[in-house]
Amino acid sequence: MVTHNSSMRAFVITLPAQPLQDEELEAAIRRAESGVAQHVIVCFLRVEIMSSATICNLIILERLLDGMDRQMVLCSLPSQIMEVFRRVGLQSLFVFANDLCAARRWLEEHACSCH
Predict the structure, then answer these.
(1) How high is the pLDDT of residue 112?
(2) CA distance 7 to 113
(3) Which of 26, 57, 75, 89 has a 20 to 30 A CA-CA distance from 40?
């Protein structure tokens, strides 16, 4: 996992190939629960498989961020991972971007960074 802050006040999480324990998403959830409000970009570039725990943590994080007027963008999803979101009907819950640059552009256009 790689995490870093961007100039847009977005916390970037790069998930590992097999994010089975979701430590990085759970850490982001704890940050949001503690009141640390940042936009989040979750990069799936390396992801090969996705567990139900990952899906649950993404939903929890999205809800927490939404309640804090923050956005989450999922980017660089391999086609087989995007198909998981489509099959379970979650493609409308999340914002998707082709890559990290597109995710940052989306946040710059749609999210207020002044908080």
Answers:
(1) 61
(2) 10
(3) 89
